[in-house]
Amino acid sequence: MKARAAPTNNSEAHLQYLRALEWRRGTGGSYEESIAALKRAVQLDPSFADAWEALGATYVSGFASVGYGTYESVRREAVDDLQRALALNPQLAAAHSDLAEIYYQMDWTSAPARAELERALAIDPKDSLAIWLKGYMANADGRFDEAIAMHNESRDLDPLQVDNYRQLGNAYYRAGRLDAGIAVLSDAVKRFPAAPTIHYRLACCCLPNTRPMRRWQSFHSSSSRIFTSWVSPWRSISSGAARGGQDSGASVDPRQRRQWRGLPARNRVRQSWR
User: What is the pTM of this model?
Assistant: First the structure.
């Protein structure tokens, strides 16, 4: 097997890039530290395409999962960085996948998202983000078996990415396969103990399964700065589970979220409950 060439010849830029990946992978650091490290990386090596891609992707992740920034500013910054990455390396599949994520998770338009996913998979049929997003879209459409298969594949391709576990657990949850979801997310908690979304999703799986102690332990573990202001969705989920239902916000169809575009970013994220 031919070894992959180093993405940059600047060792300090590469170190900053690797440090920045910790936040997106759920293994440490913060959003602010990740952005700062990636800005430093592209400053040290402006031709570092992978770092430009990671910078754009981090802006998107910060907005979609935590609510950092405004829709307009985040979209502008992310698209500019991703286009810069593709100008430097047109064969960078991840940048196409990131653009697809912008179109689907920020713009809520599926047609351009699917077109970008096809471009990404034509370049690299094993691009884990493209496969993850296809699973996410299948989950939103209620095609749970397909979503589970896609998320299993993306997890196997990139076992160090926390979202591969979270969304696999989410797909099991929405399919009503709670024990399978609990098994996946319990394993993820061991791998990513500092990732609050894993604890939250595990708590959701435990709620309808009448495991109150475990669900509150999981929810307590997720009560970071991010979740302190997200009490209302939890109350809604708890009351729904008490009636034997599931939280409809587990993975809301993006078409149903268009009405929220005018809301502040944090409120929009709270309601869509990614």
Answer: 0.74
